[in-house]
């Protein structure tokens, strides 16, 4: 978080700057951007216009000028429709992960997705995710139930509890976590321990 906060003011690429500003708010910063997107969508069409985007960013307090926000919007609007969808936004803002990290996240997701339909349920995660290695559980600061509930809330976007997690949502969450872990081997170990692999 601190590294991202320090790097953000010096970033020259507007997408990289927005990514760093999100990451400076923690591993769930990308998910918070998704919530922000839904608030920016004033007319509910699941798309955001340039005006909605610029206004939304200004309201967040993220340190971006109007010019930077407009330039960022232009980079997200890959199809030049004058609007951006949440998918266009997340795909570009999500921090890149190495192929080995993407592979372990996909393996974990596949472990849950018994039907192969590309969706896992919250109950599936609850049955496999182990809180035993979580620092707050290990220190006794939080109960297993509290740690589990906070973890599960990461996948419920904008307070909408649909009980379903897509690979994209799963990958978005772990791309935020990945950025804070320098070593691929440690990331792999963390995933294997958390999901009993």
TrEMBL record:
Q: Keyword set for this entry?
A: Calcium, Metal-binding, Repeat
Ion transport as UniProt keyword: no
Gene3D superfamilies to which the protein is assigned, alphabetical: EF-hand
Q: Which PROSITE patterns match?
A: EF_HAND_1 (PS00018), EF_HAND_2 (PS50222)
ATP-binding: is it a keyword of this entry? no
Which stretches make up the EF-hand domain? 28-63, 64-99, 100-135
Organism's domain of life? Eukaryota
Tell me which positions the record assigns to the signal sequence. Answer: none
Report a single Gene Ontology molecular function. Answer: calcium ion binding
Family matches, as InterPro entries: Ca-bind (IPR051581), EF-hand-dom_pair (IPR011992), EF_Hand_1_Ca_BS (IPR018247), EF_hand_dom (IPR002048)
Alphabetized Pfam families for the sequence: EF-hand_7
Q: Which PANTHER family does the entry mention?
A: CALCYPHOSIN, CALCYPHOSINE LIKE
Give the protein name, as stated in the record: EF-hand domain-containing protein
From which source organism is this entry? Parnassius mnemosyne
